Amino acid sequence: MTAHPTTGTPGPGTAATAVAEATRAVVREFLSARMAGDTARLGELFADRVDWLLAENPAVPWIRPRSTATECAAQAAELAEHTVPEDARASVDAFLVDGTDAVLTGHVAGTVRATGKSFEGPFALRLTVEDGRITRHHLYEDSLSIAAACTP
């Protein structure tokens, strides 16, 4: 392992840097596939078993427990099915990577197709990437705003 000569901390080119860069590359590919609605590619990026966390919300049809790559990849298609694509907006304010873990924060907004009501709010997404695949997907968002938009 190469260390910085002054601080003794790992420097560029270390194994830790390589892991973080691999994590960053998979997360970027995940974001690209999500934006494109590429369910097949998302299915390849998720591990066979995923630690999925998104607070259950009976009023929101696309929010439910998931654990397999197929179920996790389908969430993007289900979201698109229930919302108005032209009104969907998401922005990332921060993208932090530490080894196999990545955290993204930002804002999301959209309109529910069935009710015509809008939702918006901040989000935080924690992903873990192991062996090139996403093993953890924990999403924290304004579920009250989304539930209100889904309620007629």
Describe the structure.
With 152 residues, the chain is α+β, with helices and mostly antiparallel strands. 34% of the residues lie in helices and 34% in strands. The protein contains 4 helices and 5 strands; from the N terminus they run ααβαββββα. The protein has helices at residues 15-36, 39-45, 69-82, 143-150; strands spanning 46-54, 89-98, 101-111, 118-130, 133-141. A 5-stranded mixed β-sheet has the order 1-5-4-3-2. Helix 1 runs antiparallel to helix 2 (39-45) and helix 2 runs antiparallel to helix 3 (69-82). It is globular, with a radius of gyration of 17 Å. The N and C termini lie far apart (59 Å).
Distance between the termini: 59 Å
- Give me the side-by-side strand order of the main sheet: 1-5-4-3-2
Give the overall silhouette. Answer: globular
Overall pLDDT level: 92
- Provide the structure class: alpha+beta
The largest sheet, given as strand count, sense and whether it forms a barrel, is: 5 strands, mixed
Helix content: 25-40%
Give the percentage of residues in beta strands. 25-35%
Provide a count of the helices: 4
> How many DSSP E strands?
5
Which helices and strands occur, and which strands form pairs?
Elements: H1 15-36, H2 39-45, E1 46-54, H3 69-82, E2 89-98, E3 101-111, E4 118-130, E5 133-141, H4 143-150
Entry summary:
It contains 4 helices and 5 strands; from the N terminus they run ααβαββββα. It is α+β, with helices and mostly antiparallel strands and 152 residues long. α1 (15-36) packs antiparallel against α2 and α2 packs antiparallel against α3 (69-82).
